Amino acid sequence: MIIQSIFASVLLLAEVFPSFLAVLASVPHHKRRLVKVVIVRSCLFVLTFLFCVFLNFAVANAWVIVQEQDSVAEADTFSAIIEVSQANPFPKASPESQGVSTGALVRLGELVTGFVESEEIVGAELLVIKNRRTVLHEVFGLDAPKSGQPLDKNTIFSIRSMTKPLAGAMAQILIDEGVLKLSDPVSKYLESFDNERSRDITIEHLLTHRSGFPMKSAGRLWSDYSSYQQIREVADYWGEYGPQLFTPGDEYHYADANVDTLGAVIEQAAGESTAQLIERRLFSPLGMSDSITLLAAGDARVSRLAGKNAGGRGRWRQFWRWQGRPYFSFPMFAQGFYSTTVDYARFLQMIMDGGVVNGKQVLSKAAIARMLTPASQTTMPTGFAGLDASYGQLMQLYEKGGHVVAFGHSGSDATYAWAWPEQDLMVLYFTQSRGSITMTRIEAVIDSVLARPIQMEID
User: Nearest Cα to 424, choosing from 396, 454, 459?
Assistant: First the structure.
């Protein structure tokens, strides 16, 4: 627009210039010099003015272009930072820079190497994160017994019961939003619980394993759920079975039935698939892109799945590996998910950060408090000296004198994760060696070389 105005002004000057000459010719000879000076100076003034306008426009336009380029560059840089953060949320650092002894990590690695060499496990991935920095991330052993195929870093593992805290976190989100209440009877959502046996079971009983359900399978065999098509059918089985161990609320008894039922309740209350909710409301904001609720053909991530091994020392066999069909045919919320050490560390970090991820409140502080408040003492063995094992709302807790020192969870395919909030320390030890008995020994070494400073501070 400004360029067009300047061009029009120049054309106007060209048109009126002959008129100026005619006027000059009509002026008496002795006054022509003065009039000529006035005309020339006027033209020069106008041209100078137009030049200044053009120059100002050019500079301003150039500045806008530079600013736009800078903005694009800044946006690209920010996007790059986000991508790097998602790819590597816990950047590497030397142990000493984070106050950790290299010797302590060597001792921990030697322990796991010993487990492999003595055939107490088939293979393992070990991740130690201190102050949000990776100070140890190693793999040990094989994917399958006697296969010669080494286990790869960032393998995706079956995490079995480590699924429970993830399902519990989804329930806590709905409690925060008023969709669920701890005091709600399960029968409010599932008709199969509206009977004399199960009517008194509440959402809180499911979250704390105080329903009275036994630790048994709803299937024909322990992990055979082929007679079911969806989690609602499994929950209906338990509603009809009833709490046969004790009156709901009276005692603690760890049972898969509680969390599979909770998965069906969430789906009914929210009106959306529980698996999709967890992927959208939990995995996505946490960047847990390697966590899977249900295996599916065509998912590129299945190429990174570990095989499942069972047995014991020196007698391991691989009883499942990906061959195009999932181990469970529908999402199981007590034991069905898959994840990596890094992804599960993202989840632990969110809990340590009071439910905040990248500045966004995913879980409320009240929800975190509910998860980490002991509801029952347990008989779970632990290698953490001086700490008592207890259970909150779908979270294993380790406390001293009523103070929760650490939290985490384990899975029956031999995956383990622990977090010490006051020490800003996380340790994740994943194997696929169902039947191994290495948990308390690695806990004891972690306790003596890494976690003991916490207990000393509390003492």
Answer: 454
Q: In this predicted model, what pLDDT tens digit does every residue of 59-109 receive, in sequence order?
A: 445 443 334 444 433 333 334 333 434 567 999 999 999 999 999 999 999
Question: What topology does CATH give the domain 96-458?
Answer: Beta-lactamase (3.40.710)
User: What is the pTM assigned to this prediction?
Assistant: 0.81
How far apart CA 374 and CA 208 sit, in angstroms, is 9
Domain ranges in the chain? 2-87, 96-458
Spatial separation of the C-alpha atoms in residues 293 and 274, rounded to whole Å: 10
- Could you give the CA distance from residue 436 to residue 123 in angstroms, rounded to a whole number? 11
Return the bridge partners of 346, or none.
none
Strands (DSSP E) contained in 296-431 are 308-310, 317-320, 338-339, 356-357, 360-361, 376-377, 388-391, 396-400, 403-411, 415-420, 425-431
Residue 293's contacts (CB-CB under 8 Å, 6 or more residues apart) are 275, 278, 279, 331, 336, 337
Type of residue at 422: E
Residues β-bridged to residue 130: 133, 425
Give the DSSP letter of residue 193. Answer: G
Among candidates 163, 158, 167, which has minimal Cα distance to 206?
167
DSSP strand E in 333-395: where?
Answer: 338-339, 356-357, 360-361, 376-377, 388-391
What is the spatial order of strands in the sheet that 396-400 belongs to? 133-141, 123-130, 425-431, 415-420, 403-411, 396-400, 388-391, 376-377
CA-to-CA dists, residue 235 to 136, 179, 452, angstroms: 41, 19, 42
27 vs 249: CA distance, rounded Å: 115
**pLDDT tens column, 401-444:** 999 999 999 999 999 999 999 999 999 999 999 999 999 999 99
Which is nearest to 206 in space by CA: 369, 394, 372?
Answer: 394
Separation between Cα atoms, residue 288 and residue 282, nearest integer Å: 8
